[in-house]
Amino acid sequence: MPHAPHSTRLERRLGDWARARLPYGLAELVMFILKQGWACLFGGLLLIAILATRLVWSPEWPVHRYDALFLFAVATQAFFLWKGLETWEEARVILMFHLTGTAMEWFKVGAGSWSYPEPGLFKLWGVPLFSGFMYASVGSYMARVIRLFDMRFAPYPQFWLTVVFALAIYVNFFAHHFLPDIRVALFAGSVLLFARTRIWFRISDRDWWMPLPVAAFLSSFALWLAENIGTATGTWLYSGQVAGQVVSFAKLGSWYLLLYVSFVTVTLVSRAALHRQPLPVTSARAASAQVRPARPRQ
After folding, report:
1. Is 199 within 8 Å of 212 (Cβ atoms)?
2. Does a cis peptide bond (omega within 30 degrees of 0) precede residue 180?
3. From residue 124, how far is each of 60, 120, 127, 296 by CA, in Å?
């Protein structure tokens, strides 16, 4: 994906600052955490807005809380594009997430899986329109983290298989209300399909790797924590749940599967980081250079 220029300059400054003051191993850890935080900036700001509005909002104010969150999300997205913090290619990914996520929200709320208890003008069929941006924040994170860490995925399965797998997961989120739930088979399928796939990433000047299913599990745990923030503030509630009650660990599994849908959605727009053959450690960096033009060390 093309680089967002302002974002790249900020990343480079952070890297220079850390390497000038910290031992190599600690600098790599600090940069990993900072880059992860920078990648999930949109989602982080949205969570902060959810918490802040819950603390200060009054039902007597002329603007509903859900509407304020929607306007905040739109303004934040526009600001990111204006300041070059996201590329237009990344915005295309985010739009796809917004559409597929909103469609799922309409169905799930209609089926009684969860609800949004507060009023709002920007609310359609029981779903506030800001909710689509929560899915979009996952797309924003994925698109940005691939760019920030110069990620490569190898050996990557045949592309058509990954699309079929993602479609099966997405359809099951709807179909299990009427048909047997096949998520156990989908969990097994994720391991069978992606067990050999490594995510190669670079923090500064060294390549690291992690099995893709492990990365999906760790990411799903982070999203489960974020969900607890949403339900603790009463922004949305699952069927039978009260505000402040911990979200079921079963939702962690749901997010684990949904992340594969999210990742395949990103690859529909950009596949430059996908490699059919394994990448030896010595050639991982060379593969990254083929993915995108060379740039100053960050």
Report:
1. yes
2. no
3. 22, 9, 5, 47
Sheet holding 198-202: strands in order across? 152-154, 198-202, 207-211
Which of helix, strand or coil describes residue 199? strand
pTM for the predicted model, two decimal places: 0.80
Radius of gyration of the chain (CA): 20
3, 54, 200, 242, 271 from 283: Cα distances, Å: 23, 50, 11, 52, 19
Residue 270 tokens read as 């950009």
Alpha helices for the chain (secondary structure H):
5-21, 24-39, 41-56, 65-82, 88-111, 131-148, 159-175, 183-194, 212-232, 250-269, 281-291
Q: Is 47 helix (H, G, I), strand (E, B) or coil?
A: helix
Note down pLDDT in tens along the chain; length 298 residues. Answer: 445 555 566 666 766 776 677 777 787 788 888 888 888 888 889 989 999 998 898 888 999 999 999 999 999 988 988 887 777 777 777 788 888 888 888 888 888 888 888 888 988 888 888 888 888 888 888 888 888 888 999 999 999 999 999 999 999 988 888 889 899 999 999 999 999 999 999 887 788 899 999 999 999 998 888 888 887 777 887 877 776 778 888 888 888 999 999 889 888 877 888 888 887 665 555 444 444 433 333 3
User: Residue written as tokens 């727009």?
Assistant: 269
